[in-house]
Amino acid sequence: DAGVIQSPRHEVTEMGQEVTLRCKPISGHDYLFWYRQTMMRGLELLIYFNNNVPIDDSGMPEDRFSAKMPNASFSTLKIQPSEPRDSAVYFCASSTGGPYQPQHFGDGTRLSIL
Amino acid sequence: GENVEQHPSTLSVQEGDSAVIKCTYSDSASNYFPWYKQELGKGPQLIIDIRSNVGEKKDQRIAVTLNKTAKHFSLHITETQPEDSAVYFCAASAPGYIFGTGTRLKVLA
To answer: I want to staple B100 with a disulfide (CB 3.0 to 4.6 A). Which of A82, B4, B65, B71 is the partner?
Structure first.
């Protein structure tokens, strides 16, 4: 079975540009999570969805960040406008059966904002 | 909100020795505690988990213990091998995970 698929794997862009990160969860999973990993702050939960509906976005750092899940097989995390401090590895994870179940992570998108 | 502390931040052991990583959590309502292994350039991979109604769980060379009263849980790896070298994260469900700060384990051949 295919795991969680994220694209692109690497993104380098200039400050002020719009960035869109993409995620395809494991088929049949009804929870989707977005995390950010940095050296300073470690792994942080940004937002999670259940059945395509955002449940908790309290981890989203600023209004510049937005996430959508238009259907069960696709989610995006958008940053507009991007800033150098947004540079990080962004992970998507999915699970089934509830938020207290094992989460399966993608291999992440390494984002560099110049 | 939940807070998870993890120690040590780095750990070096000789091949064949045991490794122990410890975590504490703050929210007594947390009831699910997974451990993840992260290799360079990869996403975290679940290696073992434990729920609050269980005190210990084993899977081959890996075991996890949970002390709900003290709010701490530990990962034990026995007979370590070079391929165990990676960064290990503990987490507590909040829901969504609150991760510890990670332990870089080096197994010296």
So the answer is: B4
